[in-house]
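Blinded run. Sample ID left blank on purpose so nobody reads anything into the name before looking at the predicted structure. Input follows.
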Amino acid sequence: MTRNAIVDALGVLKAGRIVDLTHLVHPGIQRFGPFPAMRTEPRYTVAESGFHVEQVSFVTQYGTHVDAPEHFVEGRRTLERIELEERGVTAVGHETLDTDGSADVRARGLDCEKYVLESDHYQVEVMANLDKLPSTGGVIFVGLPKFDKFPGFPVRAWAVVPNED
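Blinded prediction complete.
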């Protein structure tokens, strides 16, 4: 692929409309029942230290997040093993807290989620604005952090879709 082809592809993406697929993360965000709420503590302020830093504590599966296969299947891929250049990536993305519906979870547990992760695919849960995407013709990007041996982590997800005009 030539440099010009890459620049041309970037031009096509820039001409599209960006749809944010990520929920705002805050202590009151909807989360899986037993998980604790996020906690924040200001460690440094601009007024006192010349810069602002927060200390944050939350579980790895919080807000819009990725589940690596290790989340349900011991010994499978963790975050750092999800390659940036995977071709033919197969992943699941949805708006709900779990792949399985709540009635299914009560009846059978998290069978669908386990199936996806056992298949060595990853998934992005608690996505926003999926109703604003066309059924075909868009590209979804997910910014994955590279924490060692983590089963998941919050992500920033967005889509580029054709402009409506």
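Unblinding after everyone has recorded impressions. The first strand starts at residue 17 and ends at 20.
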